[in-house]
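Write out the 3D structure for:
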Amino acid sequence: MPQIFDRQTVHLYWFSGSGNSLIAALALAGRFRELGLAVELRAMENHDPCEINPEAVFGLVFPTHCFTLPEIVRQYVEQLPHVDRVPAFMVNTVGATTGGGVCGPLKRILTEKGFVCHGAKVLLMPDSFFAFIHGRLARRMVRAAVRRVRTFADRLMAGETHWRRIPMITDAWAALMRRLFAGRSLLARWLCYMRVVPRPKTCTRCGLCAKHCPVGALAMGSLEEVNPEHDDRERKNVRHNTNPIKSPPEPNPEDCTLCLRCVALCPNNAMRFRLMMLPPYRPEPQKELLGLYDENIKPGR
């Protein structure tokens, strides 16, 4: 058995928005368990990077944002402690291409931290940003991605994987994309397109979006707090059509990482991304997808 699995334990750290990366992480963990390894799934947003176990194999599963690392993933790996040759691997889900802005920069960060990078896999899955792919084609792509990630687990066990990096070029591309993504809030003030917005008439104030937001960018306030100028009779009329008694979610564009988890989990399609031209993409029906998040993450921070 190759050096990467001398320890027989894998800690799989994952982050997911629409659910593609969560499904990939579950498939990867399932295959490792079939091969006799102990696997623990950990959501990045709820785990301190300084508390990783250096005795376990370190794995990362996450999506691509703006052709590079999601900011929550970048911050997580940059806060990792220095270790002594801990084996590492990654799986990245993407709707089109990474442009080289994921594998290279991530390998550089982990190598500087003392990790040994054994394998990287980029999985093509339906895009959730524009949501062009739905229905049978989307399900076929998800099943194909699950098969590929299981094969990746086999090849990782056999020591047949690689993690390539083109120095400087991929780092420069990732830095450019990161600056472009960071400046979206400035553009949104005038163009109003790079943001998630609620639909007050459709929203039932269930609070699922705020509960599951990985960066705490959504807030649900009581009607008394949001509408202090209204009298009790006016608030009572609003309460009649809302349960629980809350205002629509209030997104903070500066904190939002555009992972679109709130869009995927909303049972009434009340959360919408302005650039989304079609109904929101979900790898599983909304109830099943919500169940996966509830089983594998502790909502809230």
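Residues 226-230, 238-245 have pLDDT under 50 and may be disordered.
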